């Protein structure tokens, strides 16, 4: 496993074994919470309080990590990926994906998020990538995110996809004609 494929492998593993609390736990303490819930179910009010505390905890974590979220090796790797893919004639789109709205503080938005937006904006200004930033303002609410505070609940994905394809990612629904577009390849046959 490498740093480049770890997220993909973990995501596939989690999808394959969605019913396994042991697999889904990922060190977050959900096993104990799951057992406790089965033994003594929580009221809706308690569940709401736990969820609100989790969102607040993520907000504090995002605010605290400003100095850590600027890894030069990751930025250099991104640059190499962009160069390599552009060298193959591909048009790149980077989507800054939605964050849990309640976790985005004004401090986070004006520090870490601003820095990444400016960095991606420089790539976009050079014509290297198209940037679609839905990190805030995606229309999602806190409860649209799974307990990991990272992934959108499956029930909300269709509405999010529809919204994006009707908006900023609409160009994906009708790819432009180009030398290697599906229509051009079909004409060559």
Indicate the topology.
Blueprint: H1 6-16, H2 21-25, H3 30-39, H4 44-64, H5 72-87, E1 92-96, H6 106-110, H7 112-125, E2 129-133, H8 157-165, H9 182-188
Parallel strand pairs: 1-2
Describe this structure in words.
With 189 residues, the chain is mainly alpha-helical. It has one domain (42-174). It is built from 9 helices and 2 strands; from the N terminus they run H-H-H-H-H-E-H-H-E-H-H. It has a two-stranded parallel sheet with strand order 1-2. The radius of gyration is 20 Å and the shape is globular. The model has no long low-confidence stretch (mean pLDDT 84).
Could you provide a short overview of the structure?
Helices cover 52% and strands 5% of the residues. With 189 residues, the protein is mostly helical.
Helicity range? 40-55%
- Principal-axis shape equals globular
The largest pleated sheet is described as: 2 strands, parallel
Termini gap: 40 Å
Discrete helix count: 9
Main sheet strand line-up: 1-2
Strand content: 5-15%
The number of domains is 1
Low-confidence stretches: none
The count of β-strands is 2
Report the mean per-residue pLDDT as an integer: 84
- Helix- and strand-based class? mainly alpha
Using the CA coordinates, give the radius of gyration: 20 Å
Instruction: Write the element-wise H/E pattern from the N-terminal end onward.
Output: HHHHHEHHEHH
Give the assembly state of these chains: single chain
């Amino acid at each position: 496993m490498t740093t480049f494929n770890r997220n993909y492998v973990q995501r596939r593993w989690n999808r394959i074994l969605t019913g396994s609390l042991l697999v889904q736990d990922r060190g977050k303490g959900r096993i104990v919470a799951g057992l406790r819930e089965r033994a003594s179910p929580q009221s809706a009010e308690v569940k709401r309080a736990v969820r609100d505390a989790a969102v607040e905890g993520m907000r504090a974590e995002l605010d605290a990590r400003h100095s850590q979220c600027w890894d030069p090796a990751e930025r250099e790797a991104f640059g190499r990926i962009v160069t390599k893919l552009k060298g193959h004639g591909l048009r790149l789109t980077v989507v800054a994906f939605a964050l849990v709205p309640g976790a985005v503080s004004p401090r986070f938005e004006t520090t870490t998020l601003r820095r990444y937006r400016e960095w991606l904006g420089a790539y976009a200004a050079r014509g290297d990538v198209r940037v679609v930033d839905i990190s805030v303002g995606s229309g999602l609410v806190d409860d649209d995110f799974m307990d990991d505070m990272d992934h959108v609940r499956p029930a909300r994905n269709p509405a999010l996809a529809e919204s994006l394809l009707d908006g900023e990612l609409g160009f994906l629904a009708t790819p432009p004609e180009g030398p290697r577009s599906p229509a051009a390849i079909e004409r060559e046959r």
